Amino acid sequence: MGKHEYTRSYQDSSQHAQGNHFFVISDASVIAKLKELVQSAFAAMELREDLYKSLKNSITLSRKGNYSFCYNAPVLIVVACQKEYGNNMADVACAVENMMLAANELDLGSCYINQLKWLNEDPTLQEYLRSLGLKESERVYASVAIGYADTESGLPNRAETPRTGNEVVFV
Ligand SMILES: Cc1cc2nc3c(=O)[nH]c(=O)nc-3n(C[C@H](O)[C@H](O)[C@H](O)COP(=O)(O)O)c2cc1C
Question: Total structural domains in the chain?
Fold first, then answer.
């Protein structure tokens, strides 16, 4: 893919709403503060058996005090959108996927990070995100951690994993 095509892809949004608000965070102290706030919020949550597995994992690790929701990556791109807009999460997810494809093309590792979305009504976290520029009408719907892959070659793992799900019906 050429550079131009990526530029176009970043702009994909329902009805050209283009309401995604990107926070490209490379300041280590900001990532550390987010990590601290995320850990405190999860540590205070009730750990119930019926919770989504990944959320249970976030709570368990946070209680132990060693939870890095973004894997200590040097860059975290947080994507917010209007709270009252019906396609907020879809527009944000499209942008994140496009950024992950672009990162891979640049030989960088990336990971979709849901934790800030799960905590997007947490008042302490919201207040901090506001200090970074999040508007009152916006919420965070996803983020993506970007860095060099922790592999022998330093390249992202491009091995195909066996497919176990995703039902497809051809009609
Ligand atoms: C929508 C979405 C949300 C994800 N959220 C997280 C997350 O919060 N933390 C994390 O470490 N990985 C997250 N991931 C990464 C997945 O766990 C990872 O890509 C996994 O390998 C996907 O497995 P699959 O390709 O078999 O579906 C997320 C991936 C997607 C697509």
Answer: 1
